[in-house]
Amino acid sequence: MNKEELLEAIDAKLDQLNPAELIEPERIHLVSIMTRERRQLGELEKELLQILELVKLDERVPSIITRLANVYLKEATFGRAIVLYELTLGLDSNQVSAWINMGLAYLMVSSPKDAISCLGSALAIDQRNTLALVYLAMGLLKQGDLDEANTNLDRAIFVDSSMARALLGKGELFRARGELEVAVSWLRRALSIDPYFLPALMELGNVYFAIKKYDDAIEVLTKALALDPEQAYALATMGDVYAEQHDRESALYFYDKAVSIKFDDPELWIKKGDMHKSLKSYQQASNAYQKAINANPEHVESWVKNGSVMLLLGDEGTALEYLNTALALDPKNADVAHQRGLIYYSLERHQEALDDFDAAFSVDPANPMHLYYRALLLELLDRDVEAKRTWQVALSLFKEMGDEMKVAECSARLRRLG
After folding, report:
1. Neighbours of 130 (CB within 10 A)
2. Local structure of 69: helix, strand or coil
3. What residues of the chain score a pLDDT lower than 70?
4. CB-count exposure of residue 103 (10 Å: 0-12, 13-18, 19+)
5. pLDDT at 2
6. Which of 25, 162, 206, 400 sits at a 20 to 30 Å CA gap from 40?
7. What is the DSSP letter of 197?
């Protein structure tokens, strides 16, 4: 088809899909099945990019590419969305909504520095844009700059005191500060403006869970899920609430629903795995941890979790392989080194165990348990002088911690060594 027909065809497909000008983060979902219209739009997009040099001066093109990027953002295809936003902004840098959406995409992939840059560009064009101010605050919050985040939220509220998302931001800010009751008051204020504001309901559910108001958490999260049954993180928090109340079957039900929706999040698979583990369903726990690894092969905790459950299944060799991978991914992780040291200890590979406990202590010198096992191994290796020195240091650290039982044990070991 010629240029005119192509642009008209893409425009028509975009009208069918109708992506919003500004994408709400809580409406972003992975798409498991592509519709026929969406597949056709993908083919038209390829044709457009092939002739982009010929049509880039057409005033319709930046808008079309922005709307394509919005489709990808709504589908949680963040990398492709960012590429298209960069492309469209290269053609027309005055698109405030494109800067804001690209900032949101960077927030969603945990790149707050890039998000802050995009949102700064949006605000350079429109200084009073409340959404850009709120997202900028969220980027600063992710970077730990709470005071600057608060300043931007206050600016947004000054411009629009009824903006529920800005009030939500204040709730998230005070939650980050550990002032949970203050967070509750801001979140309730957001919901007084918009009782159906989904992210405020979800955040309030999280805060109620944190302050152990479980009935309130269930009530709020039930409202959130009535609005959107596909909210994986609301489902996961509901699972957490039931897990804390020792209702493991209900917790597992909600974790199962969460991972069926957000199957690419290793943290959700770990919650499911941990629940199976608590029910002593070790093979099912391992299956869930493996799904976490599949979701993100560089997620260290997933490898460690599967290693720990392999020990419970009596497969020390496989457990060791998982922890080897975890340490290869994060060589300075004291907890993983300690866990592997315990496996080597159980396998009577004493020197390798000693090396791991030494490595763990070098990274985490405040934890006397690394020294506790180091001293045991030194005794097994008949290195009594070193063992005695290690028991003395461990005893001192346990004393500082107030662990009287371990102090007594270290003292007994020292007396035995003379």
Report:
1. 19
2. helix
3. 1
4. buried
5. 80
6. 25
7. -
Residue 146's identity, in one-letter code, is: L
Distance between CA 302 and CA 293 in Å, rounded? 6
Q: Where are the alpha helices (DSSP H) in 93-163?
A: 96-108, 112-125, 130-142, 146-159
State the Cα–Cα distance between residues 81 and 105, nearest whole angstrom: 7
CA distance 168 to 134: 9
Helix, strand and coil in the chain, % to nearest 5: 80, 0, 20
Q: Which two tokens stand for residue 158?
A: 């000054």
Tokens of 100: 């804001």
pLDDT of the residue at 57: 81
- For 228, other C-beta atoms within 10 Å of its C-beta total 14
**C-alpha–C-alpha distance, residues 404 and 407, integer Å:** 5
Residue 205 sits at the vertex; the CA angle it makes with 202 and 210, to the nearest 5 degrees, is 130
For 4, counting Cβ atoms within 10 Å of its Cβ (0-12 exposed, 13-18 middle, 19+ buried), the class is exposed
Give the pLDDT score at 140: 97
pLDDT by residue (tens digit) across 217-234?
A: 999 999 999 999 989 999
Cα distance between residue 273 and residue 156, in whole Å: 41
Q: In 3D, which of 178, 222, 230 has the Cα closest to residue 201?
A: 222
Q: What is the pLDDT of residue 29?
A: 83
In single-letter form, the type of residue at position 350 comes to H
Q: What is the pTM of this model?
A: 0.81
Pinpoint the alpha helices (H) of 211-299: 214-227, 232-244, 248-261, 266-278, 282-295
In the chain the domains, ranked by start, together with CATH numbers, are: 1-125 (1.25.40.10), 127-210 (1.25.40.10)
Q: Which residues contact 78 (CB under 8 A, 6 or more apart)?
A: 72, 105, 108, 109
Place of tokens 């605000």: 123
Handedness of CA 78, 80, 84, 89 (dihedral sign): positive
The answer to whether the beta carbons of residues 235 and 225 sit under 8 Å apart is yes
Residue carrying structure tokens 């419970």: 312
345: which residues sit within 8 A by CB, 6+ positions away?
353, 373, 376, 377
Question: In 3D, which of 202, 208, 200 has the Cα closest to residue 222?
Answer: 202
Task: Read off the tokens for 205.
Answer: 């559910």
Q: What is the pLDDT of residue 54?
A: 79
CA 411 to chain centre: 44
Residue 103 and residue 270: Cα distance in Å, rounded? 29
